[in-house]
Amino acid sequence: MGFGGYLLVMIIGALISGAAALWVRSSYARWSKQPSSSGLTGAEVARMILDRNGLTHVRVEPVPGTLTDHYDPRAKAVRLSEGNFRGSSVAAVSVAAHECGHAIQDASGYVPMRLRAGIFPLVMFSSQVWPMAFLLGIIGLGQFWIQLAVVMFLAVLLFHVVTLPVEIDASRRAYGILGRYGVLSAVETGGSRRVLTAAAFTYIAAALTAVLMFLYLLMASRE
Asked: Per the residue annotation, which of 44, 61, 82, 99 is the catalytic one?
């Protein structure tokens, strides 16, 4: 396989990730121009969802940047990018509801989320070690190093696989909540689904790229 095979996998992964990123940006751009019928901002929607689910202790905070939204389980905070925090578009409230879905997962002990959090330290370590081990292997120091890279990359692959149900479930919760709470109309919920489906594809793209890399490393270890 050699280094050429590694570059090929990296290029394919970059193309897949780039396509996913373009889909997210185009979907977000379209629905960020469509005001929600409720007129509520992302921050107001997040606060309402959290309070109705008994999560009054979870904070809602703005964070700099675009599409930098996330839930911090350690700080118990839903952090929304400034546009989504103050905006009242279909895209803004959809992203806010999705991040609140993660807060609900955290509070309910959702198993995939707990598993992802549990393996995160190992993933961070493995992400730093496996490229160095692979490099030592391909420069001729022995197959042991490539085999070590395979073992270390398994943690990275597992992280991406476990992330899929976490993100998909958060979006599923968001769809239901936005409709039940009267934040979005039936037509607007369709737009919300498009935004969150595009966002979910970024995680699918990352998982697919990880699978390709694992298969490459596995074949390289057997040469």
From this structure: 99
**Residue 141: both structure tokens together:** 């120091």
Q: Which carries the bigger pLDDT value, residue 5 or residue 136?
A: 136
- Dihedral sign, Cα of residue 202, residue 89, residue 80, residue 169: negative
Is 99 a known active-site residue?
A: yes
| Residue located via tokens 């890279």 | 149
Whole-Å CA distances, 146 to 74, 84, 211, 213: 35, 44, 16, 12
61 forms bridges with which residues in the sheet?
Answer: 79
35: three-class secondary structure by DSSP: strand
Structure tokens at 25: 């940006």
Pair 149, 130: CB distance under 8 Å: yes
| Token duo for residue 15 | 């193309």
Percent of the chain scoring above 70 in pLDDT: 98
> What average pLDDT does range 188-192 have in this prediction?
91
Q: Evaluate if residue 201 carries a pLDDT over 70.
A: yes
Q: What is the DSSP letter of 183?
A: S
Question: What letter does residue 141 receive in the DSSP assignment?
Answer: I
